[in-house]
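ENTRY TYPE: paired fold submission
RECORD: A
CONTENT: sequence, then structure tokens
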Amino acid sequence: MKNERSWFEKLLRGLIMVTGFYIIYRGSGILAETGWMKRLFTSKKAVETMQDAAISTYLPGYAAILRQRPKNSVAGEWMRGFFPVLENWYTQTGEQGENLPEQTEEIEVQSEEDSEDVEEFGDTEKNSDTEKNDDTEKDVDTDKNGDTEKDVDTKSTEVGNDDKMEQLTETSVNEGDTEQETSSENVNEVLSGRIQVDIPEQLKDYNYLLNHYFIVDSDTVTNADQLDAEELMAEDLRIEKKEEPQILIYHTHSQEGFLDSVQGEEETGIVGIGTYLAELLEDQYGYQVIHDKGVYDLVDGVLDRSSAYDYARMSVEQILEENPSIEVIIDLHRDGVEGHHFVTEENGKPTAQIMFFNGLSKNSAGQDIEYLYNPYIKENLAFSFQLQMAAEKSYPDFTRNIYLKGQRFNLHLRPRSLLIEAGTQMNTIEEEKNAMEPLADILNQVLSGENRESSG
């Protein structure tokens, strides 16, 4: 009888502990989703801390398992399946089951905490939290402050000696992407070659290049070998115009809207902007474009971005299988930075500013994230950088600095893959459409090789 009682007490204690864990974790999530948490805390970091504490307190053994080898642990996989909230925690802590340490490597520019808000289509209210979860930069999740990071709610960081203010982002990005390898067909795909180029001497200075053209999120690191301007400009990214599909445009976060978007009207959101970009590339520049209007961030009619990158990847892979001629992939987003209206003037028209966003598949300790393998990181970076340089020459105020984050964002599907942030929730539809015109132009410059004509 005593043994039975002891067993029953242990079981009861276990149930109470698990119930307590769930109440704390889920309760904090509900508060955050309903907006109450924003009133209580100035940063989502408080929410993460509470959730992490709940998991570490009530399930310390399994928390340790998830932190160490999340994708290779049978016990860890079982626990995430049995307790769905663990999968959310696993995703929110950098897709590695652990909060990454502060950055200590040679990065000279740190981002500050961004957040990609989970908002309804056309909703212009953004959380002013200074943190990256929710994909940050988007839901950009695993943000940790570095030594030089400025803790500002407006997400702007001063970089460079010329007092240039670079605006950070919100990337929508809880990348639920856990695929270990790309198909052998994609891995074997090669670029047409390299081109000898001359670049300004200042671009050969890594520190200058880093401070003036990039923003590095604190969840990752880079170095002079990776950001070598000569190497990036030498990549031959030209494609031949054909009668078969060459460019794919899609939207991982299809419900992103603008200041004057109308809920339920696709053409007034980011998908409508993608339609206009596709038309410009086809009608004005002669490329064959597929525009995928698939919805990947709605589940049963409810906005849910936790697995949007997984859903999008599966769809894009199917499109690529059916259209192997596609060489360029563009995931078009709109940024979500509280209180910022990124606008300039191009061709006499108000124009939303854009930002190229790259995943490095590397954590803040400089280690490769193996389950987010991307064989095309170098080509991805070259594509963004050559577009950035083309924009600097033709439309000097059009682009913000290139944002580098530790994850992958499905950029492994083709060498010429882009994630583009066009404006924010505070831009108008007109400003967004106007931005597609210079964007189409610089895309054509790089894909046709026109950007090489007076380089140096």
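RECORD: B
CONTENT: sequence, then structure tokens
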Amino acid sequence: MHLESPRLLQPRPAAPPAVPPGAGAARGALEKLPKWAICIPLVLQWSWLALRHGSITLPSAANPRITCGGLVGEGKLEYFDGMGATARAATARHVGIRDPRRRSDAELAAALAQAGLTFPLVAKPDLGLCGYGVCKLASLAALRAYAARYPDGETVVLQQYLPEELEAGIFYARDPVGGQGRLIGLALRYYPRVSGDGVATLEQLIRRDARALRVLAAPAHASALALDAVPAAGQVVRLATIGSTRVGGLYRDGGALISPALCAAIDAIARDMPEFHFGRFDVRFRSAEELAAGRHFTIMEVNGAGSEAIQAWDPDIGLVAGLRMIFAKQRLLFAIGAANRRRGVRPIGPLALMRLNWRQNRLIAHYPLSN
């Protein structure tokens, strides 16, 4: 069997930005559209693929060991817990704590010590989406306050805080039959930021920048910064722990960094995870050169069949080209699901998928504010 290679997801010849872009970066074609407008062509293609393959939920078979294949409703710990030694060595230290609001300070401290974690650290919902509920915490008191607002009975993931400023989403796919793994896309994610002039307050700098302004207007988000502070001239201030576009994050196509060495490194990690055939590895790294060489990167989290081709949100990519990237991703996802179905994997039922989606959306509304 040979899976179609998504030509439009292959590396672009232009090199990615060498340094994080400054304030005022333009919105891309996809960012300018309301979500419902983006969904229409994607739903139409999904419906066509469902008719062609005879299953509307076929992508849920892409990663058989993950809930719904990672399409919706899976926990972050599902990916981590299945890792072997190779994959685990490349992943940030972490620990999952169920029902954290009912844990004493001593129990929380013991769990952190056992996992080798120290403050600052990042708290994130095990069942999360788009950075909702993700917070950088500086102390046990901050963790206790976070836990007090966390939904009853749910699991939080506490993870090593990674100081590297550079972040990438590396898209991976592997033929379940032939075993050929490859990278089909790489997105560089830049956090919202402003640059000081020594005169304006942080709030004034943010309000001058349409992209940065999202950090103040984003729902379910609270800035932890002193908005009346005056950054020094040239001082770059990062505005959020998360890099989602909903708070002003910027995505760039980093396909130029895809190399045989990086492909080999990611393929070795993916093969060290049971039946993992499709998804995105979100990593922090020190330099573009090291990432391209497949060295010195750390996995923050893994996403499965529901992973977005986020490089399509690059402001330099036009609407048609961006949609083609996403269409190619969906075609490949269905093809991998179909290959696994022929191997005996059963896709999830539509009603079960709807229940998982409902539960995930319900929980997101009750998570603590991100910062």
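NOTES ON RECORD B: The CA atoms of residues 201 and 229 lie 5 Å apart. The mean pLDDT is 91.
STATUS: closed
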